[in-house]
Fold:
Amino acid sequence: MQYRFKKSTCTLMLVLAASCSTLQAKTPDKPKKPVATAQTNLVVEPEAITALEQMSSYLRTLKTYTVSSQTSLDEELDSGQKIMVDGETTITVQRPDRLHIARKIPEDDIDQQFFYDGKTFTLYGNTNKFYASVPAPATIGELIDIARDRYDIELPLSDLFRWGMDSNDKADILAASHVGTGRS
Structure:
């Protein structure tokens, strides 16, 4: 079964990810200059938080679902110029112990798949034909922690599994906007 989520919620997740990656600009060998940006006046709109909470509550009720995401992020080149990098991620979940993630970011030569069957976690690189498998814990939540802490792998869209489980989630948000709903 496939479910589509409100554009405002997905946009919020993407804005959060983009904000985290661009908050500290990289300017090698030059002192940082303050730059006036839209992030100067950060606002967290309650409607955006409500949409995020509703999405996470709903996802926790589902045993099986698929989420597809398209992202556009700014990457800073060594020259200081920024380029937009597009990517897509599809996650298929069967709670509590089945997960498949396919992630493609052509500009960065990333074409990966992550497989989890409740016993083994496997990362496969489609481009370079590289793979690695390790024993895995019993649940997706535990897998996310172990992948991050032990192997330094941040699973794409892992916040979908975590949001609402920790009371500090809201405190970590720097900016959130509700831009409306839509269906594609």
